[in-house]
User: What shape does this take?
Amino acid sequence: MKSSRLISILLLLQTRSRMTAAQLADELEVSVRTVYRDVESLHAAGVPLYGDAGHSGGYQLLAGHRFSRLTDLYTGEAEALFLAGIPGAAAELGLGAHFVDAQLKLRASLPAPLRDHVDRLRSRFHIDAPGWYAENTDAPFLPQVAEAVRAGRVLAARYRRWKEPTDVDRRLEPYGLVLKAGRWYLVAAPGPRTYRVDQFLELVVTDEEFDIPEDFSLPDWWAAHQVAFRARLHGGDAVVLLSPDGAKRLTGEAARALAATGLPEPDGRIRATLPIESVAHAHHAFLALGADIEVLEPVELRDRLTETVSRLAARYGVTPPSPTPPPRRS
Assistant: This one.
């Protein structure tokens, strides 16, 4: 709505000093003509806002004027501000006290009715980022890594990786930190590449400074990294038959593959092609589905599951039936 947009223009000019009409239009996702009309409305309201023409021109507020009232926040905006903060993450980064102070200042700036509403909201929502089965990871060097990210300082680190040699020394230029499912990852050059912060064995923040490339965007890089990571996990496919209950138990990529490839069989089961990371990984994952899944291909995976089921039957004193070849589609 227009009133919210006018406030946004004032706050943008307060934080960025000078912006052109085109820059404001891009930021607010409106037309340049709309920005012109909004500026005229601000002038009419007595806001000390002026513009300069020319290549280096733009709009700016009169020197010394600040627009810092938070009483014009809408309810949804105030809710978003308070729910966006994750105190646990701030504390891990060594900013817990600053986070609390900022929340107190923000709360004190709100009008009484909105402050009471936000207090009720905070009592009804709690953010617990890690998954149920995520192990607690101790990352003792996280505050130092965060400080290096903020200061643009090179890290001298000893890092433990999964392949040989496991413990390696690295000179890292830290581009940013990402919190994913309760675990911190450092994105650093050369590369850039990702490093689990809880796997640093030794770490020193050096006095050497570096510059992050101007075209680097941490959110964009992380999104592309996630896509590439999922592609690497898809090492092959398995053709399976699923009972209706088994189909309901699929999640993530497997559920999406079922929706795309699933075809009904005469016996009520569903034939589908599911992505698998490897035969070993699929062996463990499909065992969890028990009799609700039958693997048709690859043969290596079917044979491994058959062997495991036979061993289980022998362990419990049950004679397994003779293996039957997988059904063929006519």
Notes: The mean pLDDT is 82. The longest strand covers residues 167-180. The first helix runs from residue 2 to 16. The CA atoms of residues 232 and 304 lie 23 Å apart.
